[in-house]
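Hello Y.,

Per our agreement to keep a running log of every chain we model this quarter, I'm adding this entry. I've kept the format consistent with earlier entries: sequence first, then predicted structure.
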Amino acid sequence: MRIKRGLTAVRTAVRSWICSAPGTYVWLLVLFVTTVALHHMSPEFEHHFLRRRSTNIHELSHNPVRVLVASAFWIDSGHWIPYAFLYTVFHAPAERWLGTARWLSVCALAHVFATLTSEGALLIAIRDGIAPHRAVNTLDIGVSYALAGVIAVLTYRIAAPWRYAYLLAVLVIYGLPLAEGRTFTDLGHFVSVLIGLACYPLVRGRGKAWNPKETLAGTRG
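Predicted structure for the entry above:
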């Protein structure tokens, strides 16, 4: 009976957590369906299919709205489980804290403006002969820009001085690849972080910041 009660409590807790972040888990469910669909495509068709939904320069110049929306529902790596973990760790807490509308606004701002900035930088590189012209069709799809923006905005969820350690970690994680690789996707990720940090007006009045020290003390008590 004790085991049964424990399992019931776990199911209730999981259900409550999922229901408290509906946008996160609906999005994750869509990603699961689209990932399964990709696994049933031939490699040649998959490449063509994703390119049509890619936010590359060619597609943005012809169907900007369509590809900006469509690209947020596909994972080109084909691995869904890591995203399930990341969505639960970052997106779900952000949605619970900000509410679905504000959380979605952060996601959209990071996804759209980081995409336009990175592709704009790539276009300049092509024009200046730094990147080859074929880069206009580069595959650029996925949800990582939105994730980076949300990871950054969670800085404001944490109380000082823990906030500054978290912010430093975020800047290092996303800044080092940009400094070393300088690819357009590295730029997009770093811009997403800056956009997330710029979303401070959306976090005002969203309650007291989380203090890890208080949580640890409560656990010990």
